[in-house]
Amino acid sequence: MACPFFMPLQQLDGGWLHPSRLPLGSGWDGHCSAPGHEGIQPSDQDLHEFCNMGYAAKCSRLPVERDFDAVRFSVARDQGSRLQVWFVCETGHRPASHGNLEYDVDRQQWISSHADLRIQKMVECYVKSYLKRKIQFVTTISETL
């Protein structure tokens, strides 16, 4: 679950024990988009404890009033050339909204996207991490054959 106010910009290498288990599929650097804190670059500690993890109740930038606390993503269907990605926005550890988005892998474009630019950017990062792991897996398998 990533913080709904985190705007990821570039993948971070290192610093996490199991980066593929992170909500966006790896660690990300970025900036805050919480009201009144737009564009602020979080510290490395904040990136590790709050931004990349969601449910950042102790983050000083998290607004008291918000539509949701965290966002989850998962690949529902991988058909090779097309991905279906589910998302769930949570409030109080409960689903507040959900849906699915589709990505055309061959054309590298979204067939359906999310209206909230923050969530759209997060799902793009999630898919980028997913496809990178998938390519690494296929490469490793082919090298062992």
Structure description:
With 145 residues, the chain is α+β, with helices and mostly antiparallel strands. The chain has one domain. It is 25% helix and 32% strand. It contains 2 helices and 6 strands, in the order ββαββββα. The chain has helices spanning 44-51, 117-144, and strands spanning 6-12, 27-32, 70-78, 82-91, 94-104, 109-112. The strands form 2 sheets. Strands 3-4-5-6 form a 4-stranded antiparallel beta sheet, with helices on one face. The longest helix is centred in the C-terminal third of the chain and has 28 residues, at 117-144. The chain is globular, with a radius of gyration of 16 Å. The protein starts with 5 loop residues before the first strand and ends with a helix.
Assembly level:
single chain
Largest sheet: 4 strands, antiparallel
Order of helices and strands: EEHEEEEH
Tell me roughly what share of residues is in helical segments.
10-25%
**What is the general shape?**
globular
Class computed from helices, strands and strand pairing: alpha+beta
Q: Largest sheet, order of strands side by side?
A: 3-4-5-6
Q: Show unreliable segments.
A: none
Q: Report the average pLDDT across residues.
A: 89
Distance between the termini: 36 Å
How many beta strands in the DSSP annotation?
A: 6
Helix run count = 2
Using only C-alpha atoms, the radius of gyration works out to 16 Å
Q: How many structurally independent domains?
A: 1
* Strand residues, percent: 25-35%
